[in-house]
Amino acid sequence: MDEVMNGVTSDTTHHTPSPQRINRRRLLLSAAAGLGALAVPAGARWWAVRENARGPRLWDAAAGGGRVVPSADPRGHLYVAGYDGSVRALDPGTGTVRWAAEVSTADDAGNRGGWPLAEGGGVVCVNSATKVQVFDAASGERRWEIAVPDWRDLSTPQGVAVVGDSVITVEGASLRAFDAATGQARWIGPPVVSGAPLVAGDTVYLPGRSAGLLAFDVRSGEQRWAQDGVGFVLDPPVVHGGIVCLADTDLAAGGSTVFALDAATGRVLWKRAQRSGVTGPVAAGGAVCLLKGDRLLALDAATGDERWTATVPPGMGRGMSSLTAADGAVYVGTNDDRLFAYDLTTGRLRWQDEPEHLTADTAFTWVSLAAAGSAVYRGSRTGLRAFAALPRA
């Protein structure tokens, strides 16, 4: 039985991963690659049960697959870091390419799912394996770039964030902030972090080099707190309602623990042990959602209590499935080009979308999901697709 512990601040000592972290990460990703498509429960909409079900598609872009980031400005672009080594700005309503720029070579082994990217402050930032490149968000003009150590052999993927007029990224093992307009360095933090920064309000959250989660002031880089009771973190955390939600991973045993931390202090509010690895979490509407084996789980963000579960059969392809939550729904994109929309309150399937010919693809693919306003975007090796986020039934 999964274990829920409330009001516990853990000071458990975790073993530091061995130097061969990349091998274990690949093992973990391979084990998780089969997680993923949701079964169709009774009573679903007609398009969710018919053969070759199609969701509420808006448009398709066969050449635009990759990581997807919508603009915070509803009048802005949709940005995609593609499998082909480019970054593109698309019209979010039609999929029309507004500008494109080269980021890396198309055959770069580290570019399996598009490089990490972020948007804000009038710029788009792309973190390729050895440099961060910054483009003008409106025109695609390259503004500046900085070199970073090659992170393809690290156990966690690196990333970049934009907050206000600052670009924040990890260089080596230190969190650094740069002026978004000029690239001038503003501050550098201690060499204790790894992974992709998450910015919420005036705080940056980041996994530690081998374990734990740390919080830094976004203006000065000063460390605010560190929670050492968290183990090795692979997927980035999320912040929802003053709570930081994340899942650590036991690389040896294959299990995970889902944590809810106080965003201001790092204190453990609750934690829930899982016997197998999880994908996620994502959070919205007071719920924390994650994929665990053949189940999609929704937990209460305040208590960790289980709200509902849905059975999920494995995807037919190779690679990582993904999920996001927004507008009263949790969306799951599987590694065989399907997308499922579940009601965030009840767990009932709203709709599903699948390709005309559902086959077991042998090529590894990452799935990127993003929701913005009344649309949901799915990017993968097979392309980019936009859907309407239908209202609740």
Care to give the gist of this entry?
With 393 residues, the chain is mainly beta.
How would you describe the overall organization of this protein?
By secondary structure, the chain is mainly β. It has one domain (3-388): YVTN repeat-like/Quinoprotein amine dehydrogenase (Methylamine Dehydrogenase, Chain H). It is 4% helix and 47% strand. The chain contains two helices and 36 strands. It has helices at 21-32, 46-49; strands spanning 3-6, 57-61, 66-70, 78-82, 86-90, 97-102, 117-120, 123-127, 131-136, 142-147, 160-163, 166-171, 174-179, 185-191, 198-200, 203-207, 213-217, 223-227, 232-233, 238-240, 243-249, 256-262, 268-274, 278-284, 287-292, 295-300, 306-311, 318-320, 322-326, 329-333, 339-343, 349-353, 364-366, 368-372, 375-380, 383-388. The strands form nine sheets. Strands 1, 19, 20, 21, 22 and 23 form a six-stranded antiparallel sheet that branches. Strands 2-36-35-34 form a four-stranded antiparallel sheet, with no helix packed on it. A four-stranded antiparallel sheet has the order 3-4-5-6, with no helix packed on it. A hairpin with a 3-residue loop joins strand 4 and strand 5 (86-90). The longest helix is centred in the N-terminal third of the chain and has 12 residues, at 21-32. Residues 1-51 have low confidence and may be disordered.
